[in-house]
Every structure is written in structure tokens, then in C-alpha cells.
Write a structure and sequence with these properties.
Length: 751
């Protein structure tokens, strides 16, 4: 019941309702609060319609709030009510709901008392003592009457303005039901009931005996109210239930606001208010529909109960939805922790890979470093040895030059000169040049890696969710089915396309019939009178998602009575297909009439294919000039369109002139039969898949024997003609009377 507390509080004072009254807008307000928010309007601006209590039809009319100075343009919830003439202009307190509360009106002036004198009771008869003075100068009844002229009340919830009539606030009915609910609620919030038999500190009561009318705790119940003897028949109930039963009281009798001594016994349907018999006798509701109060009470209670049942269902759905949202919060937290851990692991893996690469690069740098040091050290060792030899030779030569023995000098001088030149030659070009530079010829190319790190981001790696079939847009017509689907509303996963699958109409395996990006697809060429199962799934670069729910669709059934054996035939309506026709073909009459602008034969097919059942259609010859040879029959979808029907292995046809006819398939002519066509002739084509045969008729008579047999698969109605012929197609026809599906020899049944 705690959720109900806001419904029981006044929108002005924010406290529980006290003496609530019902405004014409169906909102409630405390009687004292209503007096505090009254506003007086000038006579010139007082609305003439819309009196309080809802007696006029314009109770819900809005008044110009600016003219009444209720709100300023920059106001955000409470305005500067003008109040009465003598009311102070200082700001008044604001209620918890943001509604301006006015201070109590000051005592009326002498002039106002004279104006209201006619509202007071008449003086007592002569000789009677005057009534005693009221202890309060302005009792509540007087306060309700002390309403200035043109007083206006604005609903604090919907801001609809209401002008009070001469009855003032008494014109608004009291909400006794709301008052009773508030009282029960406040009592239920009181302290817990205590045991009535505990001597010192009463414990909390656990039961109430309805017969004894006493609250017991568990110990006192066992001691003072044992379940045996006469007490065994007493009924014990929980304390809360007992408190409610104690609090129950007889229904109060309501009195009329106009006639306080009359009980409300009727209900005006137009005014939507209870009335008394005196109101009816005065003719106030003479033109209105009036019903018994009890009957309307029960009716409205039933209506409220029904509305509450619907609202209860919505509340149950809301609770389930809140549970779903709370579960989503938990799942989001769990998924967030898991995803964060995955992200940290992936980044740690990248850092580990970078560290491994760093170690590899440092190894290369160390090798280069050791190589350079070895080369330089070897060169230093080599130069050191050679320099030592050169220095020794130089010192030896200097000592030889110091000798004064010419003959001895000349004996070794030539050899020394050669050695000096040879040693000097060993210090030739390049010997004193370093074999290695001190710089490292290695530059780390980190640019691409840094760019890759900057581009490191999340990508969609999840497969799409299962699509939702839009049942209101899915339908079947004749032997085609249209399906529509969409992605779930909250799905953010990218979709590259969809795959639509159908079974074979007999409960077999599913097969793909469409792959693409569209979300609606029409599948033609299905079996008549068959039940197909369909499903769709989405895919993206990460893979293929789950299937949608399976949709079962029924293609067109037979149009004949089920008890007739001819119900094996399926009545199908179709037209010629301009999309697949040869460009020289000319169609009219809603694609039912066809001719050609070429002297060569051109092919046109129907827009419906057949693979099951028995089908019959007719073609009437509208124009026949110069004895051409039109051909009639069936064909595969990839038949040649620029030759006579039957020239290739994709068509089975009968071509006919004005005297005779032939059957033709794969350019093989068979069964020449006398009898031709002319203007006004009718050619019938009968295709029976139950026996796999094709028959032809001319003017309602079978033309030759069975034309073709062993027919299986998918076939389109087709004809070929040139500019000398014009024909009209007739479909949706029952099979001829002479033919019974399933007969072994249909030629024997020819009329």
C-alpha cells in the first residue's frame, strides 16, 4: 500500500487529503486548500460560462491565464495570484508540489457583510431570543459562503480555471470515498496491535478471535484460549484482518449538495453526478437520462474492475520487464568485466609480442656492435705490429747513419734504402683509413607500427541476431509467397545480407531461394494447394547468424467442392508475363491479350508456373490473318523466345493453322490431326500432373490423342505467334466435363 500514498496527498499542501472535494476536471483538493487558492477576477474579464460544480458544458474551458495574472511569462511553476481586494501582496508559502498557497482571507468588511447578508438564515420570529454568537467569527460554513463575486479556482494539476457560482465551494461534491481510503490508510500505518491479556509489557498480537473480539499473543492464546471445548469452534484470524473487520462500518448515506435533507438515490448519465428526487422534481435533469444509483454503482464498479484487470496485466508485464532490465544490469556488469579482462589480455599479448620483437632487434644491434669492435680491434693490432717494425727500422737506420766508416756504410746502405722504401710502401693508401665506421647503419622503422596502434579499435566480430518475420506483411497468393523480415530493434550488429530458405512443400529439407540485402522477397513457382515452411537468417563477415522462427504458409487451394472428384484440379488465375516476353510482343487488356509486331514467331509465357495438380486454361483467337501457325503449350523458364514454341527441348506445344495441327517438341513434329482454327476459335490446354500428361482442345473438343506424357518439374503456360494473330487468355477455369483426373485413357471419354 505504500505505493498508493502519493494518490492520497493533496497537490497543494502535500499532506493527506482533509475534506477533499472533486473538481469538474476529476482532480481532488482539500477544502481548506481550495479556499486558499481562490482568485478574484474583474467583472469585465469574468467568464460567463463554466460555473463551478460542472453545471455548464464549458467547465473544462481554459481561461486566459495572462489576463487573470495567474502566471508570468518567465514563471516556472507558481504565479502571482491577485487574491482578493484586501489580500496582502506579499509572496505566500509554496507547497511541496510547487503550487502557490494563499494565506487565509482577512475578515470581510462591513460592505461585504452587507452583500452576503442575504445568504444568512432569516431572523428568528418576534419574541424569539436571538441566536447565540458563534465562538469563531467566521465558522467553516460561513467561510464557504464568504466567496467574493467572480471568484475563480485553478486546478493545481491540470491548470484548468473554474469560475464559482453563487454556491461557492459548496458546488463541488465531497469525495467521501477518498476520505475513507485516507482514513483506512492512516490507520493501517499505525503501530502494531498489542495483546490485550498481557499484564505488564504487552507483546505484539498474532491472532484475533472473532467471537471473543480479543487480540492474543502466542503465549496468551495457549494459556487463555486453548483449542478445545467450546473455544475450538472460535475463528482465529490475523491481526491485520481483524483490524479491518473491526474498522468496517455501515455504508454512509450520501445527501444532495443542493438539498441537504435529501438522500442521493438517482444518477444523471449526462451530468455524471448523483442526484436526489427533489432535483428531478425541479426539472433540472428532465431531458437527461437518469438511472438508479445502486445499478450505476454496480455498473461502474464492474467497469473499474475490468479496467483494473487490464491495468493489472500491464503492471505484471512491467514487473517482468523490470526483472528483465535488472537481469540485463547484471549481465552488462558481468559482460563488462569479461570484456575488460579480454581487452587487457589482448593488449598484454600485443605488449608481449612487442617485447619479443624488441629482444630480436636488440640481438641484431649487439651483433652489429660486436662486429664493428672486432674489425676495429683487428686493425689496431695489425697497425700496432707494423708500427713497431717501422719504428725499429727507423732507429736502426739512425744508428747506422751515425757511423764514420764510409766503406762499412756503403756495404749495407743499399739494402737499408730498399728496406726503407719497401716499409714505406706498406703504409700505402688505405692502410691508415679505418675499415669500419663508428655509426650504426640501422634505423628502426616504427612508423607503420605506431600508425597501426593509433588505428587499433574495436571491430564487429559477432554474427547477426536472428531476424524477425513481419507477419503482417507476409502473405501467399495462388502459387507464390511473399515474406518480409527485419532485424531486432535493439540489434547494432552489422548485416551484410540475408538467406531465405523454403522446404519443398511436403515437409522435406530446406533449400535456399534468396540471398541478398533486401528484407522482402516474393517466391514464385510454388506448388498449388501446398504447405510451405520458411525461415530466414542473416550473415556478415563474421559468419551466419541464427534462423528466425519458422513461418508456415499455404498456397491457393482448389476452387471446387471438396466432395467432387474434380477437386484434384486447382483453379489458378494468371496473366502473360511482360518481363520475360520477347521485345516484339505487344500486351494489352491487363496482360491478357497478346499480339506481335514481327512476321517471325515470338514467345510469351505466363507469370505463374505449375508443378502439381490439374490445370486448364483457354485462348480465344481475336484476329487470324494470312493463315499463320500459332503454337500453344507449356515451356521451361529458359525457353528460346525468338523461334516457334516447340523448336527446342524446353517447350511442349501444338501448332495449328486453318486446317490441321501438329504436336512439336525439340523440333520433332508428330500426330498430324485434321481441324484448324480461325477468328473466334478457342484453344484449350489441359495439364495434369497427377498423370504427367498434356492435352489440347479446339472449340471444346479434344484435338488428337494425349500430346505429351511423363511430364515432371516446373512449367509455364506459353504461346508463340506473329503479327497476323491476336489472342486473349482466359484463366481460372474448371477442367472440361469430359475429363476425369486419374483416368487411364482420357481419349475414351471424349464427348
Amino acid at each position: 500500500m505504500e505505493e498508493m500514498e502519493e494518490e492520497l496527498k493533496c497537490p497543494v499542501c502535500g499532506s493527506f487529503f482533509r475534506e477533499p472535494i472533486i473538481l469538474p476536471c476529476s482532480h481532488n483538493i482539500c477544502l481548506a486548500c481550495a479556499r486558499n487558492i481562490l482568485v478574484q477576477t474583474p467583472d469585465a474579464e469574468s467568464p460567463q460560462s463554466g460555473r463551478a460544480s460542472g453545471s455548464a458544458a464549458s467547465d473544462y474551458d481554459y481561461l486566459d491565464l495572462d489576463k487573470m495574472s495567474l502566471y508570468s511569462e518567465a514563471d516556472s511553476g507558481y504565479g502571482s495570484y491577485g487574491g482578493f481586494a484586501s489580500a496582502p501582496t506579499t509572496p505566500c508559502p509554496k507547497s511541496p508540489n510547487g503550487v502557490r498557497v494563499f494565506p487565509p482571507a482577512p475578515p470581510p468588511s462591513q460592505q461585504q457583510q452587507q452583500q452576503q447578508h442575504h445568504l444568512l438564515p432569516p431572523p428568528a420570529a418576534s419574541g424569539a431570543p436571538p441566536p447565540p454568537p458563534h465562538p469563531h467569527p467566521h465558522p467553516p460554513a460561513m467561510m464557504m459562503m464568504m466567496i467574493p463575486r467572480n471568484a475563480c479556482l485553478t486546478c493545481p494539476q491540470c491548470h484548468r480555471s473554474l469560475t464559482l457560482d453563487e454556491r461557492g465551494l459548496r458546488g463541488f461534491p465531497k469525495n467521501r470515498v477518498l476520505e475513507a481510503v485516507v482514513e483506512r490508510y492512516q490507520q493501517s500505518k499505525a503501530a502494531a496491535l498489542r495483546c490485550q491479556l498481557c499484564e505488564k509489557s504487552p507483546r505484539e498480537a498474532t491472532v484475533l478471535c472473532e467471537q471473543c473480539d480479543v487480540f492474543y499473543c502466542d503465549a496468551c492464546r495457549v494459556r487463555c484460549h486453548p483449542p478445545r471445548g467450546p473455544l475450538a469452534k472460535h475463528r482465529l484470524v490475523p491481526p491485520a484482518q481483524g483490524r479491518i473487520s473491526r474498522r468496517a462500518s455501515p455504508r454512509k448515506t450520501s445527501t444532495c449538495t443542493e438539498h441537504e435533507l435529501e438522500n442521493l438515490s438517482m444518477y444523471c448519465v449526462q451530468c455524471k453526478t448523483p442526484v436526489c428526487y427533489q432535483c428531478l422534481e425541479e426539472g433540472r435533469h428532465s431531458a437527461h437520462e437518469v438511472k438508479a444509483l445502486g445499478a450505476m454503482w454496480k455498473l461502474h464498479k464492474g467497469q473499474l474492475s475490468q479496467a483494473l484487470n487490464v491495468l493489472s496485466d500491464r503492471a505484471t508485464e512491467a514487473k517482468e520487464f523490470l526483472v528483465q532490465l535488472r537481469n540485463m544490469v547484471q549481465h552488462i556488469q558481468e559482460n563488462g568485466v569479461e570484456f575488460e579482462a579480454c581487452l587487457v589480455a589482448q593488449c598484454d599479448a600485443l605488449i608481449e609480442a612487442l617485447n619479443r620483437r624488441k629482444a630480436q632487434l636488440l640481438t641484431r644491434v649487439n651483433k652489429e656492435h660486436e662486429h664493428k669492435l672486432k674489425v676495429v680491434r683487428d686493425q689496431i693490432s695489425h697497425c700496432t705490429v707494423k708500427l713497431r717494425q717501422t719504428t725499429g727500422l727507423m732507429e736502426y737506420c739512425l744508428e747506422v747513419i751515425k757511423e764514420n766508416d764510409p766503406s762499412g756504410f756503403l756495404q749495407i746502405s743499399d739494402a737499408l734504402i730498399r728496406r726503407v722504401h719497401m716499409t714505406e710502401g706498406q703504409w700505402g693508401k688505405g692502410t691508415l683509413t679505418p675499415r669500419m665506421t663508428s655509426d650504426f647503419d640501422l634505423t628502426l622503422d616504427s612508423g607503420p607500427l605506431l600508425q597501426t596502434i593509433q588505428q587499433l579499435d574495436f571491430v564487429q566480430m559477432k554474427v547477426p541476431a536472428a531476424p524477425i518475420l513481419q507477419l503482417e506483411e507476409c502473405c501467399s497468393q495462388t502459387n507464390s509467397a511473399t515474406l518480409s523480415w527485419k532485424q531486432p530493434p535493439l540489434s547494432t550488429i552489422a548485416v551484410d545480407g540475408y538467406i531465405l530458405e523454403l522446404d519443398d512443400g511436403s515437409g522435406g529439407q530446406f533449400r535456399e531461394v534468396y540471398v541478398g540485402t533486401e528484407t522482402i522477397c516474393t517466391v514464385d513457382g510454388l506448388h498449388f494447394n501446398s504447405t510451405y515452411k520458411s525461415r530466414v537468417k542473416a550473415f556478415n563477415s563474421s559468419g551466419v547468424g541464427q534462423y528466425s522462427k519458422t513461418l508456415v504458409m499455404q498456397t491457393s487451394e482448389t476452387g471446387l467442392p471438396p466432395c467432387d472428384i474434380k477437386s484434384l484440379a486447382t483453379v489458378a488465375w494468371f496473366t502473360f508475363d511482360p518481363a520475360s516476353a520477347h521485345p516484339d510482343i505487344i500486351l494489352s487488356n491487363d496482360n491478357l491479350t497478346v499480339t506481335c509486331n514481327s512476321y517471325d514467331d515470338r514467345v510469351v509465357m505466363g507469370n505463374t508456373a505449375f508443378s502439381r495438380g490439374v490445370h486448364y486454361w483457354e485462348i480465344t483467337v481475336d484476329r487470324y490473318d494470312n493463315h499463320p501457325d500459332p503454337a500453344f503449350g507449356i515451356a521451361r523458364g529458359d525457353v528460346l523466345k525468338d523461334v516457334m514454341l516447340g523448336k527446342d527441348d524446353k517447350a511442349w506445344a501444338m501448332y495449328v493453322d486453318n486446317n490441321r495441327s501438329w504436336f512439336m517438341h525439340n523440333n520433332s513434329h508428330t500426330n498430324r490431326t485434321d481441324g484448324g482454327i480461325g477468328k473466334g476459335a478457342t484453344v484449350g490446354v489441359l495439364l495434369d500432373f497427377s498423370r504427367g500428361i498434356l492435352l489440347f482442345l479446339i472449340n471444346d473438343e479434344q484435338q488428337g490423342p494425349v500430346a505429351f506424357d511423363s511430364l515432371e518439374g516446373l512449367y509455364y503456360p506459353a504461346i508463340s505467334l506473329n503479327r497476323n494473330v491476336q489472342v486473349t487468355l482466359h484463366t481460372g477455369l474448371p477442367i472440361p466435363d469430359f475429363y476425369t483426373p486419374g483416368e487411364s485413357d482420357p481419349s475414351g471419354s471424349v464427348c
